[in-house]
Amino acid sequence: MAMNEKLRRDSLITIISLAVVVALFTFVIYLPGLKSKQQLNKQIASIQEEIRAIPTKVEQLEQLQKQLQQREAFITRMKKHIPTDKDTHRVLQRVAQLANSSSLTVSSLNPGEPVTYATYLRQPFTVNVSGPYKGLIQFLNGLDTDRRLFTVSNLMLTSQNGKNTGLVKGTVELSVYVLRDTESDFSDFKENRVSRSFLSTDKR
């Protein structure tokens, strides 16, 4: 009987010892190791995802570089059409010359408020013209193909005397541009309005 109790006690101690060992292994070695493994797997998955994304990022960088080159080329081309000096008289003279060569009569050519940007200035003008419709189209084409950059933002037309004679009156809102390398404003455009006599006689 005493021997059986001793065996039971030894068995109980053995079981308890094994349970302690299993608990220690579980909480000290297995679970921390499992957590570390999971973290490692997450890191590996993240790295793999970054590696898979490299070709896309390279392609995006190549596209950005291509766009940058295109913009630089565009700026280089535009600099040929956007001077760094205002040359007021030449601008007014050129608009009048294009109108006159298109058989248009310019009744007024008035500057608006200049608009300042980081690297350039935009000076709007309002031009009132009258003449044949074909001449107006020729005038607009002349502005579009001129060596200096002109842009047309608005065009309003009416028939002369309300008759269908092929003659029109028009108001053209256009702009010219100047790089800000050496100039600070367009103040000399506003010194005076352009007279009808200048527009009709200055055809050089």
Main attributes of the structure:
5 strands; 204 residues; 4 helices; five-stranded antiparallel β-sheet; Alpha-Beta Plaits; alpha+beta; disordered C terminus; 55% helix
Give a short summary of the structure.
With 204 residues, the chain is α+β, with helices and mostly antiparallel strands. The chain is 55% helix and 22% strand. The chain has 2 domains: 1-81; 88-201, Ribosomal protein S6/Translation elongation factor EF1B (Alpha-Beta Plaits, 2-Layer Sandwich), CATH 3.30.70.60.
List the helices and strands and how they pair.
Blueprint: H1 2-81, H2 88-101, E1 105-111, E2 115-116, E3 120-132, H3 133-145, E4 150-159, E5 167-179, H4 196-201
Antiparallel strand pairs: 1-3, 2-3, 3-5, 4-5
Helix pairs in contact: 2-3
Descriptive overview:
Keywords: Membrane, Transmembrane, Transmembrane helix. The chain has 204 residues and is an alpha+beta fold. The protein folds into two domains: 1-81; 88-201, Ribosomal protein S6/Translation elongation factor EF1B (Alpha-Beta Plaits, 2-Layer Sandwich), CATH 3.30.70.60. It contains four helices and five strands, in the order H-H-E-E-E-H-E-E-H. It has helices spanning 2-81, 88-101, 133-145, 196-201; strands at residues 105-111, 115-116, 120-132, 150-159, 167-179. Strands 1, 2, 3, 4 and 5 form a five-stranded antiparallel sheet that branches. A hairpin with a 3-residue loop joins strand 2 and strand 3. Helix 2 runs antiparallel to helix 3 (133-145). The chain is rod-shaped and about 130 Å long. Residues 182-186 and 200-204 have low confidence and may be disordered.
